[in-house]
């Protein structure tokens, strides 16, 4: 029961992402690769299992995602779609905005373009920098987004960690906390690298969702560059011919 409650709260409280202040801790780059179809497929699976129950992608459709990610209709509907949605439906959840506002004070935001709003590095670091904090209502805090209201939705996979800080006093006599590292309290189902790879795939999928057309644009890029190269060569030959008799 506690697991289900934590998972539900984690998904819903992800709404705080859209209103976080600046000064985020970015410890390492996401290093996503939107050209990797395998990564996008794994990221979509993670999103369907852990995020879509609370956060819709109203500007995406299942059939478009399947087409872009190289999935058949059967693969999409049998392996990734966990509701009674149809193949051509938008990626929405069953919870209404009114229910979200009534239960949690704020409806969970749509995450279709969250990667454009936040950036892939911010999202990646946010998802890997949770730690336990008994002073917070949810029991969790976040190094990238301090005092976030969202608990750690993936804690069973990453494990439970404590953040260690050192206090330093500046010249004005004010104390400042400096992060010095995490301490593992309970191991997760995945090791550190496996968990980071999973989060990287999830963020990669969110990056794709924010602009699906970039896959098409990137596939055209080599042909556009080839056209420009050929056109430049022909223009040079034309210029040489025009100015052949000019001394």
UniProtKB/TrEMBL annotation:
Cellular component per GO, a single term: membrane
Membrane spanning residue stretches: 220-238
Binding site for heme c: 51, 54-55
GO terms assigned for molecular function: electron transfer activity; heme binding; metal ion binding
Matches recorded under InterPro entries: Cyt_c-like_dom_sf, Cyt_c1
Subcellular location: Membrane
Cofactor(s) the protein requires to work: heme c
Recorded superkingdom: Bacteria
Annotated cofactor note: Binds 1 heme c group covalently per subunit.
A Pfam family recorded for this sequence: Cytochrom_C1
Signal sequence range: 1-20
Keywords on record: Heme, Iron, Membrane, Metal-binding, Signal, Transmembrane, Transmembrane helix
Designated name of the protein: Cytochrome c
Record lineage: Bacteria, Pseudomonadati, Pseudomonadota, Gammaproteobacteria, Lysobacterales
